[in-house]
Design a protein that fits this description.
The chain is α+β, with helices and mostly antiparallel strands. It is built from nine helices and seven strands.
Length: 265
């Protein structure tokens, strides 16, 4: 039975090698320790590494990322599916890859293994991917002030007969601030070409932090009220001005507060 199992593994390995030679994609096999056990000709072509140089070597040592920030390429092993990643080739050139991660059934003689299929993304595919991320971010950014406006209007309609003049004023101020946030987002979209061209500008000036925090809290107040949540602001008695872009700083704070409300109890 042991001989049969070894013969089967030898056959499957030969089959894998035959198949991977005929395709342009890179095929990499990794054992349970994250060490490379197979490196196809396609993987050698993409990365510049020879199979003999990487066999038995840690995946993260071979597939290094341009800016690690603590991220190791081997982390892809924990997320089966399709991922997009930038790596450095043997010549230290940046390469954008689509990586398919597939966990393989464990074998008594080898333990669990992971199969990686690597495909180089064309410039157009990379641009399309960036565009999809951009559109997703834009959708998220627009949803925050629109949700605040919707909550204010709904609350006004439900409680219109019971609201005091001050409460109505507060609701209208919240709506006005949300419209201002939307206008800022639209301005940001118009600057998208400048961002792509590397001409993105942050307008720094002396900013009253307390004023920014107060405005941000006012914008999200209808969301908090609707969900029965309370926002407590703890700050020093005297906050010095800081150099910042007030519109972008407020946008960041509103997004953080909105997410805290959305994902909080």
């Amino acid at each position: 039975m042991v001989t049969t199992a070894l013969d089967e593994r030898a056959y499957l390995k030969a089959l894998l090698e035959a198949l991977s030679v005929s395709i342009r994609e890179g095929v990499v096999l990794v054992d349970s320790r994250g060490l490379i056990t197979y490196f196809s000709p396609g993987a050698q072509r993409l990365t510049g590494w020879a199979a003999g140089e990487v066999m038995g070597v840690s995946l993260s040592r071979v597939f290094q990322v341009p800016e690690q920030n603590g991220f190791q390429f081997a982390a892809v092993l924990e997320s089966p599916g399709v991922q997009r990643l930038d790596i450095l080739t043997r010549e230290r050139q940046t390469l954008t890859l689509s990586v398919i991660v597939k966990k393989l059934p464990a074998r008594p003689e080898t333990g669990p293994e992971t199969l990686l299929v690597l495909r180089e993304l064309s410039d157009q595919e990379a641009a399309d991917h960036l565009q999809s991320i951009f559109l997703a971010n834009v959708t998220h950014e627009f949803r925050t002030p629109l949700s605040a406006i919707n909550a204010s209007v709904e609350y006004f309609l439900e409680e219109m007969e019971n609201l005091t003049r001050d409460e109505i004023k507060q609701l209208l101020q919240s709506v006005n601030l949300s419209f201002t946030a939307l206008q800022t987002l639209i301005d940001n979209l118009l600057e998208a070409s400048n961002i792509e061209a590397g001409r993105f500008v942050v307008h720094l000036r002396a900013v009253d932090v307390e004023e920014i925090v107060t405005q941000s809290a006012t914008v999200v107040a209808p969301l908090l009220n609707r969900r029965g949540q309370q926002l407590l602001i703890h700050k020093p008695e005297h906050l010095p001005p800081i150099q910042a872009d007030p519109l972008r700083l407020e946008q960041v704070l509103v997004n953080l507060l909105s997410n805290a409300s959305k994902y909080g109890p």
